[in-house]
Amino acid sequence: MTKSKKSTPKLSVFQTFKTKNREFTGEAMRQRGIITHLAMETLPTKKTRTAIAHRLAEKNGTTWQNIYSGIFRDLDEILLPLNIVEESGRLPIKRGPKALQEQGVPYYQLTEGGLLVAASLSEMGRERVRIMKDFFEKNTSSKDKDLRSSMLTLLGVAPNFVSSLLRRYVESYGEGKIDRLVPFDSEHVRKALDESLTIQRELLEGFSSLSNAEKEPILNFLKKVS
Fold first, then answer.
1. Final residue of a structural domain among 68, 87, 110
2. Global pTM?
3. Segments forming the whole domain that contains residue 41
4. CA 103 to centroid of chain Cα atoms
5. Residues 6+ apart with CB under 8 A from 221
C-alpha cells in the first residue's frame, strides 16, 4: 500500500463553516489567535508553543493541554511551511529530556508575510493601523514603490479601505487565487481583488471630478447610511 501524500498547507484564518458563513472554524480561530499573539507579544518567553497555548486557553476558557496539539500542528504543518511564522531563537531549559535541554525551546515571530496577515485581522483592534504601517514601511521585498507609497498615504485618510483590501488579499491567498503573500505588488493585488475595487475606483474618480457643491449632498448621504 502506498503512503498517502501530505496535503498542501493552507492558511485558514478566514475559513468559515459551510452552513454558517459568518462563523469561523476552530482551525481559523487558532491560527488567528497564534498570529495575533505573535504580533502583539514582545517577550521571547511569551512566544513559545506552550506560552501561546496558555494565552489562547485563557481567552477561550479551557486548559492549555486541550489546545496544545492543535497549536503545535498549526505552527509546524501550516504557518511555518507557509513562511508566515518563523523560528526566532531558542530558550535554554534546565528540566526535561536531555536533548531538549541541549537544543532549547523554540520561540517564534511573524515574517513579513505574517505581518501582512496580522494586519488583515480584526482582532488587532487599535494596533491594526500600526501593524499595517509597519508592514508597508518594511515591505522592502516589493519593487512597487508607487503601491507602497499609495498605501501609506491611504492609511492616513482611509485606514478601513486599506484594511478591507488586505483582508481580501489574504482571503485570496487562502483560496489559492494567488500563490504568495509577498512581495506585495500591484500584479498580485490585481489578481486577488474582485470587482468591488473597480466600483470603489469608479466612485473615487467620479467624486473627485465633482464641484464642492455637488460633493456636499453625496457626503451627507454617505454619512447618514454608514
1. 110
2. 0.84
3. 16-110
4. 30
5. none
